Amino acid sequence: MASMRHFSIAVVVTATLCVTACQTDTGARNSAPPSTAASGSPVSGGTLRLVGSGDVDHLDPTSSYYTVTNGILRTYARGLFGLNGVPAGADTTKGFTLVPDVAAEMPTKENGGLSADGITYTIKLRDGVQWDTQPPREVTAGDFVRGFKRICNPVAGSGAPGYYTSTIKGMQAYCDAYAKAFTKAKPTAKALADFQNGHDIAGVQAKDDKTLVFTLTQPASDFLNILSLNFSVAAPEEYDQYVPDDATFRRHTISNGPYKITQYVATKSIRLERNPAWKQESDPIRHQYVGAIEVKMGVAEPDAVQQQLEAGSADLSWDLPVPTAQIPRLKSSGDPNFTIFPGAVSNPYIVFNLQSKNADGAMGKLKVRQAIEYAVSKVAIAKVYGGSDVATALHTAIPPGNIGYQEYNPYPSPGDAGDPAKCKQMLAEAGYPNGLTLIGAYRNAGNHPANFQSYAADLEKCGITVKGLPVRQGDYYGAFLQNPSLAKAGKWDISAPGWVPDWYGNNGRAVVQPLFETNCNPGTSNYGCYSNPKVDSLIKQALAQQDQAKAAALWHEVDTTVMADAVIVPLNNQNTPIYHSKRVHNALYLPAFQLYDFTNLWLDPNTP
Amino acid sequence: MTLTEIRPGAVGGGPVAGRGPWQLAWRRIRTDKVAMVSGAVVVLLCALALAAPLIAAWTGHGPDEQFRDTGITAQGLPVPPNGEFWFGTDRLGRDLFVRVLYGARVSLLVGVVATGMAALVGVVVGLLAGYYGGAVDTLLSRLMDVVLSFPYLIFAIAVVSIAGPSLTATIGVIAFYSWAAIARVVRGQTLALKEREYVEAARSMGAGDLRIMFVDILPNLLAPVIVLTTLLVPAAIVFESTLSYLGLGIVPPTPSWGNLLSEAQGFYRVAYWYLGFPAATLLITTLAFNLLGDGIRDAIDPRMERLFSRRRRTRKGA
């Protein structure tokens, strides 16, 4: 399951490549409207101004994978299920709970939405959800089927097709056929549309205009989470006229949400205005308070963005985090516009390249890895991100807020500050009394060089010299870590990536499976090519397990096994500091995207 | 060897005590206060750089040693200058003073070695091109043109992405980019010198090409080469800082001024010292080298009057 995270340029944590989150058991859930932060009655109008560095990865919801893109996707592309934001101070895990969006209700065994064997989902669509076409047209089940068929298009497919191919009956066969059909053929808009309209996915059927039926290969208790990801939102028939996400497509996106894109200038700006076809009564999770949303790109410095927010010349940061150095000041001054939301991520963590032959294959030796587990100071890494307010020491492979998490500490050190003596002793037992030399790859941007120098200094005390290998930020995951041939060639021994799951709650498929299941193919997220049959089997059992508590126990067992094997060194769970200008009200936080919900906030005063 | 007597440098004697051109230059530069101060700064910097390990041992702070309790706040902010850390600390709690000194070692090493290599290559290529002319000249001159027309930063980024960033790669890139400027000047000078009578005389006496190039022509090229080299050193230091700033130069934790500046950029609003001290040191160093280079040029070649020259103004007043 490839869901890789690319951390935003120049910076730290936030902008990751991902998507939705949530907890699902298959129980009934009422969709409550988002709670309004108590600060007066909503004001309509005004332009929400976002300022930041880079462009969206894609505007086509099928292929978008950056969290920043999700911020605006939410305003123009609606899925079957969605998430509500949470106000500051509330329990962020509430933001993991799925609610119906275009679906009329949560499918359960009681309401007949889910078959007794857990294989078939029947989902009714809500009335009154319309495309912004002339005249406005109702969103149909067929539009969703089209969305699923676009997932594995060979031009700009989804970044995580595995979630769908591993669950939906016939999806893998459909995707294989799609790829095969275009190994040689030119993927023109017509050829792609013809393929999609001429082939069916066995497990995705439109029973009528308002009813979707999904058939799975085996029960999957996280299936509704997968349906809530942006990859499988509805696609209007007009999208058949374009090659997915090409320049023409980007000029002709069609909205079924409260806003629509009225102008997009690549790498410069995006403007969204109210969508007249959208109706409040047919949208349980969004509003249409602000008059327009404007994204300005090209400001690469977090400091510059922060200054604009504080001066009130912009309202929110688009893709840059609050500058680390500013956090203590903002926190101590009690600035009401500044909030730190608790995180549920493993970022950064140290991964070992188990394939490396360097230093006598040291990385393949359990004792060496365990020695390193003891050596690294987790509090020092937390200080790189702004101290314990922002980042907390993490001891488990699965971070809190994710299924299977239970606090325990297999490699304790005093105050989480590392134990070089213990490391040294274990290293000697492992056959390296005189130390060793490793290659440490790091991204040469943002806080990453500091992270590297921090853990390298710890290992130096233990007798391990880590030679730095800077890697360009943009190459780090796709071209470097996810390329197992580089791992096998011993180009790196140790590195500190981060992981933000595509959804939270019941998400073993989005955390444990990609990180620890045997997979040494290009694009793997198991960067060090760890392989343990016991772990693989536990993952299989956990995915098939419908009882949440039993599944959680299985996921936790993976955690303990992985930590006993010392496959990674968990370092920090990072909280998300966010700042908004003082005229922003009802800022609801979406933990899955680490962003505020643009569709629920309002501006006072509302000029401009 | 009789040839030495007809070298232009040795001609200017007379009944007064014979002074060579170098002696004259020295006398001139000694009256140039700016050049002398700059020279002193350069010498001081070199001394501090050389003594960095001693100073580190004396302060008790290693260049890569992280003082996580005293050197950073609980929120990970650097500590301002104080009795223990004269220049304050950086974001990992390391002593900025010691790191700036160690950075000077890297910067000066890169500056001097890269420029030295560039001068060596530049002089040889320039001599060959100027002396032989014809096809050799065409070939070498085009080569210089090619090198000079490289967009240097893009070239550097390309090289570093292939070779991987390191001290050697940094020096190599800078040397590669700098030699052509020297070669061009040397070639021009050689073209003029090789037509001089003393060269003709040497040739008529049976001197070989190598001998003429290196014994007869080269000493007369030293003045412009020295001036150019002195001015290239600060350029090389800035180049190294640029590369390191972009994460393409010296690999951390080894401190270089570029690395220090790069690390400090997110902290300038809360920690002036973090950016201030490395930046000031870099500024002072390049300024000192440039002014020293200017001074040497004035001293060696007094005919070349600088615009707004201090000495010219004093002469007018006198």
UniProtKB/TrEMBL annotation, chain B:
Membrane topology summary: Multi-pass membrane protein
Keywords in alphabetical order: Cell membrane, Membrane, Transmembrane, Transmembrane helix, Transport
Gene3D superfamilies, A to Z: MetI-like
Name used for this protein in its record: ABC transporter permease subunit
A Pfam family matched in the record: OppC_N
Top-level division of the source organism's lineage: Bacteria
Major place of residence: membrane
Similarity comment: Belongs to the binding-protein-dependent transport system permease family.
Organism: Nonomuraea phyllanthi
Localization annotation: Cell membrane
SUPFAM superfamilies (UniProt xref): MetI-like (SSF161098)
GO terms classed as biological process: transmembrane transport
GO cellular component entries: plasma membrane
Stretches that traverse the bilayer: 34-58, 106-131, 143-163, 169-186, 221-251, 271-293
